[in-house]
Prior knowledge:
- The relative contact order is 0.17.
- Strands 4-3-2-1-8-7-6-5 form an 8-stranded parallel beta sheet.
- Helices cover about 45% and strands about 15% of the residues.
- It is globular, with a radius of gyration of 16 Å.
- The protein has helices at about 15-25, 45-60, 60-75, 85-90, 95-100, 115-125, 140-150, 170-180, 195-205, 210-220, 220-230; strands spanning about 5-10, 30-35, 80-85, 105-110, 130-135, 155, 185-190, 205-210.
- The chain has one domain (about 5-130, about 195-230): TIM Barrel (Alpha-Beta Barrel).
- Strand 6, helix 8 (about 170-180) and strand 7 (about 185-190) form a beta-alpha-beta unit.
- By secondary structure, the protein is of the alpha/beta class.
- It starts with a strand and ends with a helix.
Amino acid sequence: MAKLGIYLVADYPSGALFLDAVRACRDLGVDFLExxxxxxxxxxxxxxxxxxxxxxxxxxxxxxxxxxxxxARAIFDRPTYIMTYTNIVYSRGVVHFxxxxxxxxxxxxxxxxxxxxxxxxxxxxxxxxxxxxTPESRPADMEVALKGARDFIYFVSKRGTTGGRFxxxxxxxxxxxxxxxxxxxxxxxxxxxxARAFSAATDVADGAVIGTRAVSELAAGIDRFRSFIASLR
Length: 233
């Protein structure tokens, strides 16, 4: 069965609702979580996630975000990844950051080039960095990503930022096909916001991540969020 991943912004729309959403994902069979650590200049994120990040940064400290992430990790008994930006990790020191957040399945750094990943992994001895590929990735990029990938390859489905409509052009589908079935699963992200899009995404990939729509539904309340997650399969 195709894997379903849900992206949540840590402590959005509040610490309590964030943790309620983690429990809902656990109870409703979500396969893995991506927890976004807010950043002031989230270049890969669309308006919804950018506003959510800024909301959290205005009212929470990093200590509180880390504390609630650690609680979320204890609640959710499946793979949990931190998705953020390089400066959040690098400015604190890779090892120190990982010690501070505690056990994590891996890091997804939206602005870290493929060529820089081995240096980060070497510093952190065993750190699992998820590789991105995009519609612009060249064949050489695909081979580099495959060589270092562990859990999965995150394939960005479209040009631009998160949110919007889900559409795959023929060239992008062909590129996904080149890396799929070569040792690690391929999960699609960006623009996947409802059951039909999830089904279309997993026709060509091994799983998909839903972010912007999940964040929006949670902002409308936990009951709305639970109904949305239940509707996806």
